[in-house]
Write a structure and sequence with these properties.
2 domains; 12 strands; alpha+beta; six-stranded mixed beta sheet
């Protein structure tokens, strides 16, 4: 189910140029920006891989390479060549959007997103930084702890998105706790977006 306030009304046509989806229509660019999609770079308007895949998945975007229509699966394969975690990003992005959140590209903590509180996109900065852990993959705990500390220092709430093998996503909110001996620790709780 899609939150209507973030639903894109227009039919969108994107051009696939050098493995990037670009939107040429100015009015559609403005609509997309207001809903939290895409970025302007110089004179170009570009959708991130996960945004293009999401809009294609919900049948709001048509992607053309010259005049050939590009399917969801074809676009996924194109993106996978340069972005090994694009499917993980797509799954998290789709889940967050379906829950009514605006998510933007994060700061390079792996598959991560800046996530805005509902109704706050364009009004306030992102409250959460969500980063992914795939079930069954090994991640060094020190690496995760460093990420959590950096995210907290940025004033964002760190949330781990665990992707189960079936594709279901479970979110865990991490909050810092201090033990009696003044040692740093972290508390992990289930988090319902």
């Amino acid at each position: 189910m899609h939150n209507m306030s973030f639903e894109v009304e227009s039919e969108i046509t994107g051009k696939l140029i050098k493995n990037t989806v670009k939107i040429l229509d100015q009015s559609i660019q403005n609509e997309l920006l207001s809903k939290g999609f895409g970025e302007r770079y110089d004179e170009e308007f570009i959708l991130n891989s996960f945004e293009a895949l999401y809009l294609l998945y919900i049948k709001k975007l048509q992607v053309l390479k010259i005049t050939k229509n590009i399917s969801f699966d074809s676009l996924m394969q194109i993106y996978k060549k340069d972005e090994s975690d694009v499917f993980t990003k797509f799954l998290i992005y789709r889940d967050l959007r379906n829950r009514g959140y605006v998510a933007k590209n994060g700061f390079g903590f792996g598959s991560d997103f800046l996530v805005y509180e509902k109704g706050q996109f364009g009004k306030k900065g992102a409250k959460y930084l969500v980063f992914a852990l795939n079930e069954g993959t090994q991640e060094k705990i020190l690496h995760v702890q460093r990420n959590i500390e950096q995210i907290t220092n940025m004033g964002k709430e760190p949330i781990i998105a665990v992707i189960e093998r079936r594709g279901e996503i479970i979110y865990y909110k991490i909050s810092k706790i201090d033990f009696l001996k003044n040692e740093n620790g972290h508390e992990v709780t289930d988090f319902n977006f």
